[in-house]
Write a structure and sequence with these properties.
By secondary structure, the protein is α+β, with helices and mostly antiparallel strands. It contains 15 helices and 15 strands.
Length: 447
Amino acid sequence: MGNLAGEGENGSLRLDFDARLRLEFRGAKVTTDAGLLAVRELDEALGLTEMAGAMIRDGRTGRNIRHDLTGLLRQSVYARLAGYEDVNDQELLLHDPAMRAVIGKRALERNAASPQTVSRFETEILASDENIAVLSSINHAWVGKAMRVTGAKRIILDMDSSESPVHGDQEGSAYNGHFCSRCYHPLFVFNQFGDCEGAHLRSGNVHSADGWRDLLEPIVDRYKHTGKKLYFRGDAAFASPDIYEYLEDKGILYAIRIPANDVLYEGIDHLMTRPVGRPPAKPRVIYHDFSYRAGSWDRSRRIIAKLEWHQGELFPRVGFVVTNLSRVAKNVVRFYNQRGLCEQRIKEGKGALSWTRLSCTRYMANQVRLALFVLAYNLGNFLWRLALPAKISHWSLSSVQLKLIKIGAKVVSHARRTVFQMAEVAVPGELFAEVLAHIRSLAAAPT
């Protein structure tokens, strides 16, 4: 059997983005973030931050600019993916060899950017009106590259809102009675592969569906000429005739939970009699569909009802879904229930990346922070779904962060190269080599 892809002399692994770097697995036990080297390899294969850096508008005019925008973007995004959610944490990365290696090919010869430099980059350069729009365009471009590699024929879009509590007087935050906290109330769209297609920061007291069109429309437009079939799922907060009409006009199939009312219950009145006989331990489930038109609707639409008769309960548990899908009722409900993955992705963003840490005073600065967290989340999700071998494909984003990215390494510098002697704990050398091989296969795919 020949050498694994990327193997160099003495069993070391080479990296395509910088031929001077070698990875050797010697079992050294030191704590850094050497797994970021795999993230950087994925970044290079898909051409993500190099493209993004060219899109950002640079208003700096001084002659002593040491850090280019691409390197600063990498440092901001990679730090968040490694669990450093605050700019102050950049002090820990200033001399870190892994961070210095991934910023740029010459970065090993100097320190990473200081916390002050990163802060100016995030709160001044990126917080301009132009660059806030650019950050959204960058995320669209990144997801587009990942989806072209994926080759999916259909795209399922899940929209949901979330709570980002604040602990100060952040501009635009407000008390939200549903969450019982002072917060921001961001809106997210994910696809079925877990990529965050887009996110908007909003004031804490807005309705869950507020601004849905501003977020959804650019995503739909991006897929318009790809030939992919679009689907949409949303909870009862998105049960609005404006949304139905928009989706129908765009040819998008949807399943949206709809709040119950007396007229809907009339449509299942014949099913509300408890079944005769001793109820089984397992709930009895009944599906039914019928046509319904609310007073504010321009047409009748298909409603799917699900009734669950549970042992020891006098009345059934009932839920309604409005849809333009032609599937049998049971399959429509199954399709809708899969939107729970969207809620799981939001939890991962909160847990692994702490993307609720929107602690800047200015609203626009917090918009930038959320956008950078989304880029970090997507970079981690691309690594998870495009590069992990089958044996660890069940890992969550938190597992990827803790077991793959947070690998310890001893760094040995030679005249012509730098060697990272990686600690073999959760990820042995053979497994890391598989990750790099998967990434190299992506580099050969059209993006």
